[in-house]
Write a structure and sequence with these properties.
Rossmann fold, 2 domains, 7-stranded parallel beta sheet, globular
Length: 327
């Protein structure tokens, strides 16, 4: 029997939506290994997150809850999680591919002397080995890799698994953080207050490029994103737009920005430079709007509209708003 540990990310007492996608991956993987999916979370004040995880379909929840873990500590969290992985006989550990996941899971893998794959779009167990698939060469190809050690770790790209739904009733085992000095802790997080949907968690991304001509015209992108309703869509931008100072870097999609994989990606006035395609070509459905019929973006688009964005986008925004309002 091989249990699968899924590390849940909790920020400000709230469970990150993408962690529920990692839960789905862990449950599927546990079904293939013949083991149990066990969720683990570190932090302080984890009652609400623990209850949400307990209802997600996992067999058990471990909440390492205490004042010492109020702020993120890579070494502290990794020590605690590695100990739990050994205690529960985990042969696989998964986590979502976020900033925390990219920092924490490699630490855990090192302590477990485990194989690790990052930014996976699928994880499976068959014929006695763990296998992942991940995009490479700017998304032009898919690499299949096998784990070679007794324990396998993988970070999973958001929006490649459905979020686990409520319905379970797992036991929550609440324990104190292990004693000992932490090598490092996050003392302060400086972030702008915003109710915007995080780019990498959005179900829909509406992105704009230089084809919008000037920063003021980005209201077309914002209006279209808003038409999908609260918490559904996020605004993205090409590198050229960010370099021009039209939009903040946090909205940049591409090789030097954020790599996203939403169910729906709408590219407006974006030509489709390879740097941008590397960040979004694994999206479920890609819609491109561009007046240049030869723009490279159309080569990866599922649906392409050749025409003037200043005419097409307002009409599309109105149509989507009407559909959303009718539901």
């Amino acid at each position: 029997m091989s249990n699968v540990l899924v590390i849940a990310e909790v920020r400000g007492g709230s469970l990150k939506r993408s962690s529920l996608e990692a839960v789905t991956a862990a449950i599927e993987l546990a079904g293939q290994t013949g083991g149990k999916a066990i969720a683990i979370a570190c932090g302080s004040g984890l009652d609400a997150a623990g209850s949400e995880l307990a209802a997600s379909g996992v067999a058990q929840v471990v909440a390492i809850d205490g004042a010492a873990f109020e702020s993120y500590s890579g070494d502290g969290y990794a020590n605690a999680i590695a100990a739990q992985a050994g205690e529960h006989g985990a042969t696989a550990v998964v986590m979502t591919h976020t900033a925390m996941g990219k920092d924490l899971l490699p630490r855990v893998a090192a302590k477990l002397d485990a194989s690790i794959a990052t930014d996976a779009t699928s994880v499976k167990f068959a014929d006695g080995k763990f296998t992942v698939q991940r995009p490479v060469f700017a998304g032009k190809a898919t690499l299949t890799a096998n784990g070679t050690k007794a324990v396998f770790c993988a970070t999973i790209r958001p929006n490649n698994y459905a979020a686990a739904s409520a319905g379970g009733n797992a036991e929550v085992n609440k324990i104190e953080p292990p004693a000992g000095d932490l090598l490092s802790v996050v003392k302060e997080i400086v972030a702008s207050s915003s109710d915007r949907t995080p780019l990498q968690e959005a179900k829909v991304i509406v992105a704009g490029g230089r084809g919008l001509k000037e920063a003021e015209h980005f209201n077309l992108v914002e209006d279209l994103a808003a038409a999908f309703g609260p918490g559904v869509a996020a605004v993205g931008a090409s590198r050229a737009v960010v370099d021009a100072g039209w939009r903040p870097h946090r909205e940049q999609v591409g090789q030097t920005g954020k790599v996203v994989s939403p169910p729906l990606y709408i590219a407006i006035g974006i030509s489709g430079a390879i740097q941008h395609l590397a960040g979004m070509r694994t999206a479920g459905t890609i819609v491109a709007i561009n007046k240049d019929a030869d723009a490279p973006i159309f080569k990866v688009a599922d649906y392409g509209i050749v025409g003037d964005a200043f005419e097409i986008v307002p009409a599309l925004t109105k149509a989507i708003a009407e559909v959303v309002a009718s539901k």
